[in-house]
Amino acid sequence: MERPRAVVTGASGLLGANLAVALHEAGYALRCTRRAGSQTAHLRHLPDLEWVEADLADEAALTQAFGGARFVFHCAAAVDLPPWPTPALRAANVEGVAHVLAACRAARVGRLVHCSTAAAVGVSQSGELVTEETPYNFEPYGLADGYSLTKRDGERLAMAAAAAGQDVVVVNPTYMLGPYDLRPSSGAILVALAKGRLPLAPPGANNFVDVRDVARGMIGAAERGARGERYILGGVDLPWATMLGMAAAGLGRRPPFGVAPEVLLQMGGFLGDLFFLATGRPQELSSTAARWACTLRYTLSSEKARGALGYTVRPLEETLQDALADLRARGLIDR
């Protein structure tokens, strides 16, 4: 019996790589797209994985890559965090989504699972948990940065296509941690902690989730999700200081000795904005990033995914242990 084919865009990234592993383990015939020069050695242990070069700007190449697919999982995105949208972010996160949608139609793909982000949903206004029905409301709180705005716009394209009859499901993961973080991306904060470069923790909170749980949630969305629905794939809401304290224990290091004053972060964010204006290069700390580091409004519910997709999450201690082990194995932190 022929195995169903799944195609993953962005398999060189944290989520795409873990999704490729999960799909392989679930018995799918696997094809992954990559840009020229992308790292792929981290998935060489998947013997039947087929790589195809296809840029998000190349609709014809995407159409060819998606041929014969029951499911396409669109994970590729630009994740820079400038304080406002840039042409590069729009090209990847908005125009790229339009090209993927068109390619899926042309290739007659069974279903597209579009990976958005919880940063395209909303934040809590009075302590209630954010759900899939929460409207995008980042502007009043100064949290609308280039990434969240372009991912929101890309998600709107996906939902509009679903409303027009295309079989599209959207997932909205939170802050992902885990193995195969090559850059690293979200794991950069763990590297900074391991190297003693994080004396103070951000004063806010976030929702932390194992990337492998998100990957399984995406497969659940493909197999059991409803067309035109979106599903928050989150983990646990925790203060940054608590998460970093858990990571420090796993490293055998002292945790950050306090939290950074908000005024200090705001000053750093202002300087980051000025540098971005002068050079065009996004900085790790911008005015919006500073506000994100301080917010306590980012509290999310994954109950819809639990009920509809059978979504579950593992303990964060296990996630951090495996993420740190992977960073050690890749030489990014000391053994």
Order of helices and strands, N to C? EHEEHEHEHEEHEEHEEHEHHHH
- The N- to C-terminal Cα distance equals 45 Å
> How many domain units?
1
Largest sheet: 7 strands, parallel
Notable traits:
single chain, 335 residues, alpha/beta, Rossmann fold, 7-stranded parallel β-sheet, 3-stranded mixed β-sheet, 12 strands, 41% helix
What topology emerges from the helices and strands here?
Blueprint: E1 5-9, H1 14-25, E2 29-34, E3 50-53, H2 59-65, E4 71-74, H3 87-107, E5 111-115, H4 146-163, E6 168-173, E7 175-177, H5 188-194, E8 200-201, E9 205-210, H6 211-224, E10 230-233, E11 236-239, H7 240-251, E12 258-259, H8 262-279, H9 287-294, H10 303-309, H11 316-329
Parallel strand pairs: 1-2, 1-4, 2-3, 4-5, 5-6, 6-10, 7-9, 8-12
Antiparallel strand pairs: 9-11
Helix pairs in contact: 1-6, 2-3, 3-4, 7-11, 8-9
Task: Give a quick rundown of the structure.
Helices cover 41% and strands 15% of the residues. It is of the alpha/beta class. Strand 5, helix 4 and strand 6 form a beta-alpha-beta unit.
Q: How would you characterize the overall build of this protein?
A:
This protein is of the alpha/beta class and 335 residues long. The protein has one domain (5-329): Rossmann fold (3-Layer(aba) Sandwich), CATH 3.40.50.720. The chain is 41% helix and 15% strand. The protein is built from 11 helices and 12 strands. The strands form 3 sheets. The protein has a 7-stranded parallel β-sheet, with helices on both faces. Strands 7-9-11 form a 3-stranded mixed β-sheet. It has a two-stranded parallel ribbon with strand order 8-12. Helix 2 packs across helix 3 (87-107) and helix 3 runs parallel beside helix 4. The chain is globular. The model has no long low-confidence stretch (mean pLDDT 95).
